[in-house]
Every structure is written in structure tokens, then in C-alpha cells.
Amino acid sequence: MKTIRLGARAGSGFVAALALLAPYASHAAQPDDDPDKVARWLDFKEGAFKGRPIDTKGDAVIKFDAPKRAADAAVVPIAISAQFPQTSTHYIKKIYLFIDENPEPYAGSFEFTPDSGLASIETRVRVEDYTFMRAIAETNDGHLYSAVRFIKASGGCSAPAGKDEDAAERAAGQVRLQAEGAPIAGKPELAQLMVRHPNRTGMAMDQVTRNYATAYFVRKVAVTYGGKPVMTANVNFSISENPNFRFYFLPRENGELKVAIEDTKNKRFDGEVAITTQSGTQTSAMK
Asked: Least CB-packed of 80, 230, 256, 282 within 10 Å?
């Protein structure tokens, strides 16, 4: 099956939207399907990994949590959890996220380093149809491990936007970055990033104009601590409106936790928070 790829200008009209949604008229995944034999996954697996073996019993490396049925298909919480800490000799360098039945199955990737402390990520995604979701972890020795979950959801990518398109775009760019505890030197610390952004898919009809808004979404998030990379996300419209990410960093000493965000209109948004490991206190900055 041909994979549909959505760019920043896609979804600008009714014909484009129908073309994107066409695959769902005849097929929806079922929970008793074999996740390793889903046609869309097999096609994308070959394109993404070129025949490299993937360990499907990777629970010792990665775990994937998601609801069995979505309360809101446009805002589905997921958590991908590493099962061991990051070290200089053994670490997860990348996690790939796939949502098989979304218009673009490849939702993005998250890159980590030993300075991440723990290669775990939580976020919220859109889900268009009943589907398998997959997290593929790649370790620094080149091995691949998968964790798979099935979710019942419908219409998350084509759901109408919650507010006026122009108003949502004008409000885009507010960033809040914070550590969630009292940072201790040498111990992985949980942080949260919140970004105000419409993250439009290009498939949602404006309820006033009856037109399809152009796709417009955050495509890259780069987090550093003390000038060293911690987490880099390269994502697409599958991430929900107002993206929210929870991740870890390793505070070895006092420093600045910073984020640089880019969207599909080449706009850049930045945020930072000063981390003090001695007292466990912090001050946050919002831009």
C-alpha cells in the first residue's frame, strides 16, 4: 500500500482532504489482527529499516502505555518508557513512533544521549482509526526493539479545530519548560515542555468557512542542558494541538535547560529554565 506523506502545504482543499481519508473507507485494524502482518506496517518497516531485524519481545528495553479506547481521539496520551538508565556504554539513541492507520503512519522520532539520563517520553497524539501503535527503540549498538499497543479511536486527525484558525495561529509560540521535582546531581530528572500551537493536520474542516485549513504544525523540538543535547523530537501532525512532552535530563551540575522549537512555517520559539542542583530549587521562564 502506498504511504501518503503530508507536507506543510497539504490539506488545503476538499479534494486533498478526501484523498487523505480515502484509505479508511475500506479498512480498519482489529485487536485480534497479527500486528507483525499489518500491510501498512510491513510496507513502512521495509522503507524505514531496510530489512534490519526488530526484536518484538523487547520488554527489557522499552515499554509502551496507551489507553485501549480513546476518550478523545484527537488527544490520546501515550508513554514510552525505557527500562534501563542511559550510560556512556549502553543507551537508547532513538525511539521511532508509528501509528499504522494514520494518514502518515510515521509520527516521528525522539533522539536521546547519555545526558538524557533515561530515554523515556510522554506526549499526546491524534489517532484516525482503530490501529496498532508502535514504539521502536534503537540502542547505541544498532539493535532494534519494539513495543506495540492496539487502540480503539476514530477521527482524531480530521476532528474540527477547537478555535478560529487565525486566532490559534496568532496565539502560537508560548513555551513553558520546567523540571518537575527537586533536581539532584547525577540523578535523572523529569521535565515537562508545553507549547501553545494549533498543530493543524490539514484534514480538519473549519466549521465557519467550511474550508480545510492548511497543515501547520511543530516539526522539531531540540532540548539541551548545559549546552549538551538531551532530547530531540522530529515529529509531524500526529502530535496533538498544543504539544506537550515529558522527558528526562541528567543534571550533573547547575545549568540551563533550554528548548528550541521549529514549525512548518519556519517560525522558531524558545524557552529555558535555570536548574540549581544544590538546593533543588528552580526558576522557570516563559516566552
From this structure: 256
